[in-house]
């Protein structure tokens, strides 16, 4: 199972974020993967096969920027959750292997969204604009290839949080 759904908004200083936007953000980025993982583990517990969960996290969990408190917190929470489940599954009879992965800076809708935020709300917007202009964004296709390659490695799940995803050379 791959938990890849995620949102970036709200991107603004915390005092400008509405309570319902914060709650929705956490529901999508953190609570949904927790619930999905719970169901996956519960419903596959009896199955004797290789079971894997990959949670798509972000370097934003570790490297904080202003105005991204919701995103960084949800991804740090996802990392912590993944570590906890990794520990829970260590001594299970039919364990689920789990890892959270930082995929890199990928050319997705989230990147388009961050580049459109007002500088008053997100002082680092120019840096994200420059990443795109310099052609430094990974393509979704190459990122998907690297993620799937990692998911199928024998050592998947040995490290609960993987910060550096190695691209598949083609």
TrEMBL record:
A Pfam short name: adh_short
Keywords per UniProt: Cytoplasm, NADP, Oxidoreductase
Major site of localization recorded for this protein: cytoplasm
Cellular localization per UniProt: Cytoplasm
Record-given protein name: SDR family NAD(P)-dependent oxidoreductase
Organism annotation: Bacillus stercoris
């Amino acid at each position: 199972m791959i938990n890849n759904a995620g949102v970036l908004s709200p991107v603004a200083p915390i005092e400008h974020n509405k309570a319902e936007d914060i709650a929705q953000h956490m529901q999508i980025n953190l609570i949904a993967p927790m619930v999905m993982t719970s169901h996956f583990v519960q419903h596959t517990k009896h199955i004797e096969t290789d079971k894997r969960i990959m949670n798509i996290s972000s370097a934003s969990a570790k490297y904080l920027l202003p105005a991204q408190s919701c995103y960084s917190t949800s991804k740090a929470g996802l990392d912590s959750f993944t570590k906890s489940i990794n520990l829970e599954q260590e001594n299970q009879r039919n364990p689920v292997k789990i890892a959270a992965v930082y995929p890199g800076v990928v050319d997705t809708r989230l990147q388009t969204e961050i580049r459109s935020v007002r500088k008053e709300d997100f002082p680092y917007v120019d840096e994200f604009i420059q990443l795109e202009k310099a052609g430094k964004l990974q393509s979704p296709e190459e990122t998907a290839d690297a993620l799937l390659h990692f998911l199928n490695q024998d050592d998947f799940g040995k490290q609960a949080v993987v910060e550096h995803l190695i691209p598949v050379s083609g």
